[in-house]
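chain below, 433 aa
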Amino acid sequence: MTVTAVEAPERPAHRDPNVLRWLGAYTASMVGDSIYFMALAWAAARTGSASGTGLVLAAGSIPRALLMLGGGVLADRLGPRRVVIGSDAARAVLVLGLAATLVLTAPTVGVLVAVALLFGAVDALFLPAVGALPPRISPPGQLARIQGLRGLAARGASIVGAPLGGVAVATGGPTLAFATAGALFALSLPLLLGLRIRPLPEPVKHGGTVACDHEERTVTEERPTVTEEKPTARQDLVDGLRYIRRHPLLGPLMIVIGLSELGFVGPLNLGLILLSEQRGWGAAGMGWIVAGFASGAAGAALLIAVRGRVPRAGLVMCLTVLVGATGIAAVAQIPSVPLAAATAAVVGLFIGLAGALCGALVQTVADPAYLGRVTSVSTLFTYALIPLSYPATGAAIALWGTGPVYAVSAAVCAAGGAVGLTFTALRRAELPR
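prediction:
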């Protein structure tokens, strides 16, 4: 008698203890990040130097831009779990050490710049590794849900971290805030140590498959060549960039990420401050608009976390970028705070959905052996290169006003979605069932 084995159904990500440990560690780190940056800003302001404050706040972006790709190489060579544990431990020691220093002496610009540079360097290792962990702790069918849970954690960290940091600063100054952030980084360590990591699949000669329009299409995925001599870090980096360029989906996805982030981040951050000043909305009005965006983005994250899969993910991702870009242009033309906040919520919903789907597609189609390097490239746009556009955004608004700059930014963002639609493989890409 033939006995047919019945495959056990996948455990949903929100019920998987392994995923929840990762999510708890990630949330603690994100809340710690939020408190750290608030404490750094307050400590820099207390030095009494406006130029020094700007220098302190900008210093961390330099090592992120320079070292982010190297962080991806390190995550692939050592494993993302080791790198995340090491970087969170380093952040805990660094920030707690700064808190101890401030007990004994007043903050100086030099000390704060040094800490910001070191923290940015560690961040360049942490960000690619933490993004490469989900495929190593969960089956492919749950990666979209994990992206949704990660988005909810990030939004929740912003909501909780800012007030908590403010209370800490008001109660015990930057010293207490830094100590709180360091304790949260340390809190993530036992959770990370408890993670069970899935082994990398065996190298394949003919690559994997990408689900496109309900059919499986074979794609060539180059794996690291097994040689007698281990390749150098530089060779690994070049190999990873070549892998992204030749991949039928990852290359287009990087273009979509780069253009959509370039057109979106400037108006949301610096542009919104200047827009609120010009319209007389003040800090309260800007807060309502930011809250609108955050609520929309949280809604998108919740949708992905609950559904777990969106049909025609590649097509939906590109279309939601286009809709979100239209909303970006509209924000600068709306005369009232309530309408601007409602429009920002729509932008957050569609851009948030696009970001979650893009992240899930990246983690699904990328060979796990390359995922650290792939994540480092996508993260480089958001955390390192895009902030460098702020001076250009500010200068352009000073010359031409918010309306034209928002329109150009929206066009750049929309170009990301439009370019994505031109790639058949991306347009037909599906997430695993």
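The CA atoms of residues 59 and 117 lie 6 Å apart. The beta strands are 209-212, 215-218.
thats it, cya
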